[in-house]
Each structure stands twice: as C-alpha cells, then as structure tokens.
Write a structure and sequence with these properties.
The chain has a 7-stranded parallel β-sheet with strand order 3-2-1-4-5-6-7, sandwiched between helices. Strands 10-9-8-11-12-13 form a 6-stranded parallel β-sheet, with helices on both faces. The protein is built from 18 helices and 13 strands. The chain starts with a strand and ends with a helix. The chain is of the alpha/beta class. The chain has helices spanning 10-26, 38-43, 59-64, 66-83, 94-106, 127-133, 144-150, 161-172, 176-180, 198-213, 230-239, 250-256, 266-273, 286-295, 303-308, 325-333, 336-353, 358-368, and strands spanning 2-7, 31-36, 46-50, 87-91, 111-114, 136-139, 156-157, 188-193, 218-223, 244-247, 259-263, 278-282, 315-317. The chain is globular, with a radius of gyration of 21 Å. The chain folds into 2 domains: 2-159 and 356-368, Glycogen Phosphorylase B (Rossmann fold, 3-Layer(aba) Sandwich), CATH 3.40.50; 167-353, Glycogen Phosphorylase B (Rossmann fold, 3-Layer(aba) Sandwich).
Length: 369
Amino acid sequence: MKIYIIAGEASGDLHGGNLISAIKQDNPDVELRAWGGSKMENAGANVVKYYQDLAFMGFVEVFKNLIPILENFKFAKKDILTFAPDYLILIDYPGFNLRMAKWAHKNKIPVIYYILPQIWAWDERRIKYLEKYTQTRLAILPFEQAYYQTKNVSVHYVGHPLVEHIENFKKLNAGVNASNENPSETKTIIALLPGSRIQEIKKHVPLLIPLVQKNPSLHFELALAPGLPGEMRHYLLQAFPKNFSITENTYHLLSKAKCAVVCSGTATLETALFNVPQIVFYRTTLVNYLIAKLLIKVEYISLVNLILQKPLVTEVIYPINQGKKLERTFNDLLKMEHQLKLCQGYDEIGIHLGNKRASKECSKIIFNV
C-alpha cells in the first residue's frame, strides 16, 4: 500500500509522526511519502516538503505570498500523480488541504481527512468540500461529531492526539525533572509559548518583553519550535533581559513551569494537559482582526475554553485589548487562588476528551477503509 500525507504546520508534523508510527505498526510494508517535518521523517515517511516553507498566517500574509503558495500546489499535484498513492491523508492545514481534496477527488484518489477544519467556528460553506471530496473524516474534538451529525455528514471521533502524546512523554520522563532539580534553586519558571512560526514569534515578542522586564525575580523560558534558524535565537537573546532563556523542548519546559503565557493554538491544550496555569494571547493586524470578527462565530480562541464551552482561561486579543491588559492578566496569574481555579477547571478536559488513543484509532479506520 502507498499513502501520501500532507501536513503544513508544526502540530501537523507532531500528529502526523504519531499516526505514521501507528500505521507502520499495523502495516510495516506501507510506503509513505509526505509533507511535514522531522517527526514524520523519523517515524518512517519520505518527507519531500517541510512545513517551515509552507506556514503563512492571516489573510494579508496569504495574499502577499500567493506566488509561492501556487507553486506549492503545482508541486503537490505533480508529486502525488508521480507517486500514485492508494490514499491521500490530509492533516489539518485547511486553506491548502481542502483544495487538494477537491483536486484528488477529480483524479480519483481517495482522501482521508484527519483533524478537520474548524468550520464550526467560521465558513460553514467548507462543509461541502468535506462531504463531496473526502471519503473518510476523522475528528479530534469531542463536540465535532455531534456538530457534523446536525449537518448529515458522517465523521469518526478518534480522540485528541495530544492526550496520547503527552501521556507517552510523561511515562518516558517520569522523575527526570525531580532528579535534575537543584535544592538551592529558588527561581520560579514562567513558560513563554509565542507560536511556532517566525512571523508569529516576531509579532508576539514585543508583548512579552515588558513581562520579563517588570518581573526580575522570575525566570522566563521561551519555547522555540525545532528547526527555526539560528538568527531567531540570537534575536531573542538580544531582545530580552537576562532573566530569560530559550529551549526547544516545550514539554520539558511545561513539566517544570509554574505558569505560562501562551499564544492561541494547539499549545493552549498542551499547557492544560500538563496542568500548568496559563493566560492565552494573540496579536494580529487590525485588518485581520476586523475580517475575523465578521467571519468567526465562536466566543473563544483557545482550545481549553472551546472544549469546556466556558471561559476558564483568560484570553487577551490584540489590537482591541491594547495597553496594559496582558500585564494585568499576568499579575493575576501569579496569584495562588487563580492558579488553583485553573487547575481544577483542567480536570474537566479529560472527561470531555475521553480515553481514545487517536493515532491507533486512525490507523484502524484507515485500514478498515
């Protein structure tokens, strides 16, 4: 069997890597060609495009990069036809992948979509693409199955892939932080998770610098996605005060952090699953913000609040929440009663997500198909 997989972001590479491992366990002879990153490559796929070259965020940024985006479409179509896969698996990345689904359907290539587009948040018209151009749909959020049922579209709820991934990390690293802990170390570590893309990091750093400057007794550690250029590390070390360091291991950081300041995205759920109190923030241009306000139908931007369907973690969205709000919110986060409230709220997330192991569930469904 031959399978082609497209993932266009760091989170897609993470979940794609776990999926490939599960597929290889069920069928060691399967041939896998992919777009993704090191995790998918290490799991056994032949990666021909890396997500670092694909990540364009926001309406304005996509418009500015139309030429490379169109070139990527052209490359994908040619490469898929040459490889001639039995199945095309699309992981998240809907702006690109929904168009690929339509093209694959026309070329009689069965499409499996894993981590469905958030059409419940905006642009329900895309449900027609999923219904018409995908053969199998695999949802990772518990409320998605019920939502799609109301639209008469069948989906399989496979569980959230972060649950199994973090469980595996904790098992492999049990006692590591405790054994490395220095009894004389009194620093409180604050995790900074500003996003996985260069453009995200650069627009979020100016919001984070004042937090570091005004809290010299705390130690701030920023998680960088692996594979970002060395110039980014140099830029960050120059921009921040001395009570600051950088890591490429987000999970080790979350294992020891007292609390976290997190860019909206997958990292908000990761932080909650590590039971770390957090605030969620996101900075965008005024144009992107106004367009999003017209299109987006949900009340929250963080996965934690979306899963719980209530505002547990505080969300600070720019440019509307200007001025000192992030600093005020951070000061509240340092209070013990606020941290306890968040950790108690996190307990409900596991109930909502259930005990399915997403990669194994997906692999079983793929081979049943």
